[in-house]
Automatic annotation (TrEMBL):
Keywords: Membrane, Transmembrane, Transmembrane helix
InterPro entries for the chain: ABC2_TM, T7SS_ABC-Transporter
Subcellular localization, as worded in the UniProt entry: Membrane
Name of the protein described by the UniProt record: YhgE/Pip domain-containing protein
Record has Transmembrane as a keyword: yes
Membrane topology: Multi-pass membrane protein
Spans traversing the lipid bilayer: 203-222, 234-259, 271-287, 294-314, 354-374
Keyword Cell cycle recorded: no
Residue intervals of the ABC-2 type transporter transmembrane domain: 12-372
Amino acid sequence: MAILKQKITWLGTVIVLAVLVVFGAAMMGSVLGTKPKDVPVALVVLDQPANLPNGGSLAVGEMMKTKLTANKAMPISWTIVGSEKEARAGIDDREFYGALIVPTELSSGVASLMGPEPKPPAVNIIASEGSNTQAATVVKQVLGQAMSMVNAEMANSLLEQMGKQADQVPISAAQALLSPIHVQEETVHAVGANNATGNAPGLLTQIMWMGSLVTAMILFLAGGSAMKGGASRLSAIAVQPVVGIVITGVASGFLVWMASSWYGMELSQATDTWLFLWLAGAAFYMLQSALLNWIGIPAMAILVLLMFFSMPLLNMAPEFLSSVSRNWIYSWTPLKFVAVGLREVMYFGGLNSVGSNATVLWSIAGAFLVLLVASGFKKARIPGAVTAAASANA
């Protein structure tokens, strides 16, 4: 029982609990309990009202628009757009995760179900898999459920009207009433085979972060050895960015080759993916190396924690995150700009589709390059100087 009397035992217990709190917040706090909310989806209503035999009119599209936009229980944030072309352009620009297209003949098609030649209309649900697989799944599921409710409501209404007009309902009409409105699903910006169901950008980002961190650590230690060998601090640090850029370029190319050759990852934009990963690796390296040269080995704790807090968020749509995770971590972590940029490169058409994420990475690389070089002017601590000074004073 003597071990229980040692302070280190109780201090160690506190440290263990603190580690669990920190890493629990990093690995669980950001993702547990997340749910979709305000997922941006375009709504295109082209439907034209149809005239009924009894003199009335039928406007199914307007009815759907009213019900869908008024339903606050749906985790959807609707944006009304005027055409299918505009909706698809918004999806291509990552403004929407999907769209619901209501055609011009919707009402006339529904009205035809009460006649001898029913022609069931169809609406189109578009989901962008490349933007985020989870969000695309939510779009399909939620809109599919909404259309099932609309179908049930329309079927009951049509049966009631047809029951008033005739004692018997034609077989063709009865069959059509089982599903008055057909639903067609379309997936755009597909993620391809062996892309971890769309999570490949996040995985590549994490691996590149670790590769850059190892590079930064090796060159930091090499620089320390060079200074012990007589090289000036500035010269030892000035060469680190050059070597680091070369190594991250080779590493990023190897990572892309390994993902496609070893694991069969389908990469339609392999060269562009490599070039963007090279930029990401260089930005990561500059950040990591600058912190190591200014702070020293303790900077590793900051960099490891940054990775652990960022990892769970990389493959999630921001609309799924809590406001704390979204504003305090996701909005600024460097890994996020790489993961989102990789989605643009891999699934939206290569480097020509990269938005502001590339600009942010260039800014990070440039700013931390300056800090890295500036660390070369920091006064180096000379081993044994303190001991010698103390002996002289004695």
